[in-house]
Amino acid sequence: MSTTAFSASAFELPPYKSLSNEELSQRIEGVRSRLGERLLLLGHHYQQDEVIAHCDLRGDSYQLSQMAAGSSACESIVFCGVHFMAETADILANRPEKMEERSGRRVTVMLPDMAAGCSMADMAAIEQVENAWEDLGEIIDNSDITPVTYINSAASLKAFCGKHGGIVCTSSNAAAVLEWAFARTSRVLFFPDQHLGRNTALKMGITNDQMPVWNPFESDLGGNTEEALQQSKVILWQGHCSVHQMFTAAHVHAFREQYPGIKILVHPECMQEVNDLADVSGSTGKIIQTVQQAPAGTQWAIGTELHLVNRLKAEHPEQQIHFLSPVVCMCATMYRIDLAHLCWTLENLEAGTPVNVIEVDDETTRWSLTALERMLEVH
Ligand code: 13P
Ligand code: SF4
Q1: Which one of 47, 66, 245, 284 would you pick to mutate in the ligand 1 pocket, going by the greatest count of ligand atoms within 8 A of its CB?
Q2: Is 10's pLDDT higher than 60?
Q3: Binding positions for iminosuccinate (predicted)?
Q4: Which of 150, 266, 346, 350 could form an SS bridge with 303, CB 3.0 to 4.6 Å?
């Protein structure tokens, strides 16, 4: 276990749950103004509006990593996102040169609800990864494989990549990271999102028959033949995002039929069939930027998490924005971060009894930092 969680008594949250949003917001703002620069509240674009309203900075996964890495004045970070993001913030904010600048003082990183995980990150358990690496080593020279992990992964997997000459990527720099990897080895093992890996590699001219999928639940070579693995360029781990998996080619066709000229804008965690049909594919940051830069009157069907699409609709009434799926696709774990949890976390922090502290152990930090620093240099 690479994370230590100091959770306060379960009896403390219910009173917060009974407070109105208005009261919670006032109390949150009270703590923010009293702690001033000592506190940094970071929010991912998928957070609900009520929470985003209190964040100092918001961004996509890459931007949030940069913000955590650059934080100097703050003593604490409250991360309104999911577990792997808070782990990454802890690793980057407390890296050796930053600790030295602060005379050894750590930045305390907190996640308001410890149940805010990521189902995709959970699809690549470190034991499964280590077994796969060993099995692959029996048929391919491991020193000719670069392990690349999407930032949506546990710190232990980032550390595995760091230890084996590998690197972390985000949805905004995956192509540059793959290029970095191919400058070193002729093969990549890509975790845990097969769709981001496939969509990125296809754009680089790698074909599907060079991208076998490794199923960690198949005992025999992840369900592949020796020949398929030997001929591979990218071995894709069989993971996916349950939110983005819901968008289909049929949704794209239905929108194109109903709204001729509509632009389809999707996240690369969507399946290949959706990415292939889209006009633009990119990180949450790129999705926002694309809409911001479009002329008034542009019609969009956007395939990413619901809260972000609804916020874009509200912020851009001059454009016509639709959600790409007829069913609700929202990140249920991200949604666990609400005003009650945020207020509870902040008031405990101010009282000197921080709760839900994310602290990655030293060994995991050391190696995952290696992989994260490579990523920050490549971008
Ligand atoms: P980005 O914000 O980096 O595009 O990532 C999307 C996502 O799924 C975060 O978990
Ligand atoms: Fe994980 Fe998907 Fe939620 Fe992102 S949207 S945090 S990948 S479950």
Answers
A1: 284
A2: no
A3: 44, 61, 150-152, 171, 267-269, 284
A4: 266
Q: How many domains does the chain have?
A: 3
Q: Which of 46, 60, 82 to mutate to test the pocket of ligand 2 (most atoms within 8 A of CB)?
A: 82
Q: How large a percentage of the chain has pLDDT more than 90?
A: 91
DSSP code of residue 336: G
- Rounded to the nearest 10°, the torsion over CA 335, 339, 340, 344 is 110
232/127 same-domain check = yes
The pLDDT of residue 66 is 87
Inside any domain, residue 371: no
Nearest CA to ligand 2 atom 2: 241
Q: Is the CB of 270 under 6 A from ligand 2?
A: no
Please give the single-letter amino acid code of residue 311.
Answer: R
| Contact 185 CB / ligand 2 (< 6 Å) | no
Task: Kindly state if the Cβ of 331 falls inside 6 Å of ligand 2.
Answer: yes
Q: Residue 374: pLDDT above 90?
A: yes
180 and 108 fall within a common domain: no
Angle between helices 362-378 and 174-182 (to 10 degrees): 100
- Whether residues 233 and 192 fall in one domain: yes
Single out the residue in 207, 241, 275 at which a domain terminates: 241
Q: How would you label 36-56 residue by residue, b for 16+ Cβ within 10 Å and e otherwise? A: eeebbbbbbbbbbeebbebbb
Q: Which residues contact 103 (CB under 8 A, 6 or more apart)?
A: none
Residues 235 and 249 in one domain: no
Mean confidence (pLDDT) of the chain: 94
* Tens of pLDDT, residues 43-67: 999 999 999 999 999 999 888 988 8
Whether 135 and 112 map to the same domain: the answer is no
152-197 pLDDT, tens per residue? 999 999 999 999 999 999 999 999 999 999 999 999 999 999 999 9
At 132-153, the pLDDT tens digits run 999 999 999 999 999 999 999 9
Q: Note down the domain range covering 265.
A: 244-330
pTM listed for this prediction: 0.94
Q: What is the β-pairing status of strands 76-80 and 57-59?
A: unpaired
CATH label of the domain that carries residue 341: 3.40.50.10800
